[in-house]
Amino acid sequence: MDVVDSGDGATDTGVDTASPIDPACIPLRPTVGSGTGPSADQCAGFRAPEMGTGAPWCSLGADVPGLRAPTGFCIRRFATLGLPRVMAFAPNGDLFVASPSAPTAAGDSGGMGAIVVLSDDNRDGTAEMHTFASGLDTVHGIAFSGGFVYFTTTDAVMRSPYTMGQRAEMAGSRQTVAGGPMTTLGSTFARGGRWTHGLAASVNGRILATRGEYSSCAIGPDGRPAPGIGEVYEVSMGALNRVASGFRNPMYARCHPCRDLCIAAELGEDQTTGAVESLVAITNNNWFGYPCCYQSTTGPRASTGLCRCIDNQQVKINLGDTPFGFDWERGAWPAPFRNGVFVALHGSFYLPNYAGAGIVYLPTDPATGLPQPGTPTRFIEATNGSAQPSLLRPSDVLFSRDGRMFFSDDKGRGIYWVAPTDWRM
Description:
The chain has no helices and 27 strands. It has strands at about 75-80, 85-90, 95-100, 115-120, 130-135, 140-145, 150-155, 155-160, 175-180, 200, 205-210, 230-235, 240-245, 250-255, 260-265, 275-280, 285, 295, 300, 315-320, 325-330, 340-345, 360, 375-380, 395-400, 405-410, 415-420.
């Protein structure tokens, strides 16, 4: 994994700071909505989790057989749940989980078609389960903002009012914020979109929604490469305003807990020689060039023609490792993990099945929160090769306000938490 150099001798960060845009690139760049909101950086007043004075978290239960974390950490199973895809913590600390019942692109199924709330009122380290909202076969993204819980379905961003500690949706309160439908928005040459949309809420109140596609490189009737319909939108009531375009499938997105920084995990085109997957900073007017142009292990697929227009990606991940959900550690864990970005790698869809799956982390730039270049370090290994695998395909990572890291395994129907062995309640 490394940061790309566009050829100007300077290291690119993934943030669109290029001086005048080549006129030939302008038609490919998205129209940006006006409701971007003010910039915000709240890290000066951000309080990292602190160790409690109660019993050690790791004194609860026993490690999950087969799972391996670095020395000094324990792993506990928090809940068993069908197809847990995306997680979000409510303001009171309850864990909301999207459990869709529709089959995924990889053919996985068995979810509840619901948003599930996992609480731990008795502080025993395992969850009590509640159904917040049902009848949602394609629920995927979840985010909290402004007294609402937002979520996605195939063709819409929806929301329901949320009050502190609420564990069931109020009847008749659900609203459609914006539709489209999201499966056909975007390029004139749209060839079919995915239902697995992501959501992210930023510190300045922005709600971002993502969409991905299935198509490969195609040429439009004007002879130009047809821009991909993988895009990122800013959500406002009744509208989705494009912020970034030219993705294949930015299925997961998350915003920094205290900086005005949002990142998407872009999934590369399967089995394409030299292509990569990546984490990219979402900034207005980004165009990432898919499907006809993409970053590779050696740089852009082409440096001439329209491919010279593509924006550089922040970090690159091996094709097939499949980065899904990710989150920032909040500054409480010991070095070298402090403030790192932890990523759930879903692993390969192809043989050998789930190769590359696990949890990895990268250090971040303390001034920006952006992942630093370098090879990601394995934190938790998947156990697909064992006789009784415990972890199959990690799908999301999320840090709680008490400092534990939670992660989900959609194929393995599990949600787990990790804590340093000396961490107290």
